[in-house]
Structure formats: structure tokens, C-alpha cells
Amino acid sequence: MPVILSIKAVLAKLLLAITIIALAVMAYRWLMLPALQWLFQLDEPTTALLRRVGILLVILLAYGVYVRYGEKRPVTELRFPVSKVAVGLLAGAGMIVLVSALLFAGGVYEVTAYRGWQSGLADIALVILVAAVIEEIVFRAVLFQALESQWGTVTALWLQSLIFSLLHIANIDGQLDLQALIITVISGTLIGALWTVMYVYVRNVWVVAAHHAAWNFTVVLTGLPLSGLDDWQAMAPLQSVYHGPNWLTGGVVGPEDSVITLAMVIISVAALLWLAKKQQRFYSSAAERLAQAAETKSARTC
Fold first, then answer.
1. Rounded CA gap, 242 and 240, in Å?
2. Distance CA 232, CA 245 (A)
3. Whose CA is closest to 213, among 269, 119, 134, 109?
4. Domain residue spans in the chain?
5. Which residue of 44, 64, 109, 149 shows the fewest CB atoms closer than 10 Å?
6. pTM (global) more than 0.85
7. Cβ atoms < 10 Å from Cβ of 301
8. Helix (H, G, I), strand (E, B) or coil at 263
């Protein structure tokens, strides 16, 4: 299939999905939520909660509509396998705990104060969970699957992961030099690849979102920056500082840019790729599928 036709097919899928999701979110955000706020005289904390949870539910519903009527298939990736989601949560938190423990033990990270559990951490956890689910819908369920349908699993995995990384550079806001920026793009691509190959293996949004959310929230708990964001550091149970070169500490980006994290992610991606390939979770490109169909038809007519 010519490249231009593949690009058009991908863009058509993305446009349809984005349009359905965006219209649903706008309808909720600008029509339904104000109506609920006026009808029940909601205070700001309740309105904020309804805003976050409502937008998440609307995105899930809109995505389900897109898949059911746009792609004309069951929405199997939104099923909620409790045990696998629990494993995702534990694995996401465990990976950051392992990295942080090594860096704290080596004196690279240092705890300067212990604040204990802060009252606002539950709200932060909710924000992180909602953001993680939305990102998994956008990047893995919509973007990755649109790319995969045309160019196959492997190409789509790395292309989507690079896009994921580049879009997160905005978090850094010009705080890095060129060398550090390149390292951040590489680390972001590898972490994106980790969540994408995890999605390839389980084909479930909730499992990957659980890992993603637990990973992010655990970073917040350490008192270190999360992907360059330090908004929540004052709410962390630990107040921490870092010492040493950026390649080891992660610098202003946080643990995600540490070489220790990257080594763990590379090993995890390689292991998941091997498992996914072994269990035949990879899809071929549209061109390969057409060629295989032509060969099968030719063989039947001989």
C-alpha cells in the first residue's frame, strides 16, 4: 500500500476518534457540568471532583462509541480484569521503589525531612489516575492502534513512543541544555515504549493505566520531580534532594532520566517484547496483510 494512502488512513481514524472524544468532552465541560453546578448549587471542591471524574467517564464512553461504531468491533480493551490491574499497580510502584531505593542507598538522593501523609495526597492521586487513564486512551488505544493498523506493531510502537516523548517535553519548559534534552527524549521514548509494549501484551487500557498511575504517584511520594514537574513536591511525605551528575540523578526531570531507571526500562521492554512475540501478539502491516491475502487466494486457485 502506498505510503500516502497509509498516512491518509491513519489520519482519518485519528480525526474521527478525536472529533468524537472532543465533542463529548466539550458537551460535558461546557453544558452538563455547569447545569449540574447550577441545579445542585455545588461548591468548588465538589465541582472539581465532578469535572475530573466526569471528563474521564465521558472520554471512556466516547472512545467506546468510536470503537463500536467507527471501527465496528467490541471494546475489549476497556474490560476491567481486577487481578491484572492489581499486578499493574504493584509493578508500577515497585519499579520506582526499586530505582529510588538504590539511589537513596547510594547517597544520590537524600531525605532532608519527613512530613508524613498529607491531606491533599488523595486529591493528587485522583488527578494522576485520571491523567494516566486519559493518556492511555489517547496514546495507546487511539494513536498506537491507528498506527498499528497500517504499519504493524513494531513500527507503531516506536513511532507512537517517540510522539509520546516529544509531547511531554513541554513539562521541562526550557530547563535543559541540548545534551540533557536529548537524554530526556530518549528516556521518554523508552518509558513510552514500556507502556506501549505492555499494552501490546495485555491489550487492556486499565492494566497499563494502573502501572502508569502507580509509577507517577510513587515518584510524587519520593519528593522528587515527576517528568520535570515539581508542583506537588510540597505535598510529598518525603522532602528530598539529589546530588551528582544529571545522568545518574535525572536532574530537574527526576528519577525517570536516571541511567538506573533507563537500564531497568530497557530490560523490561526487551522482556515484554520477547513475551509478546512468543505469544504472537504482534500484528503485521496493512501491506503485509494484503500480500498474505493475495498469496492465499493465489494458492487456492492453483
1. 7
2. 24
3. 134
4. 1-74, 80-285
5. 44
6. yes
7. 6
8. helix
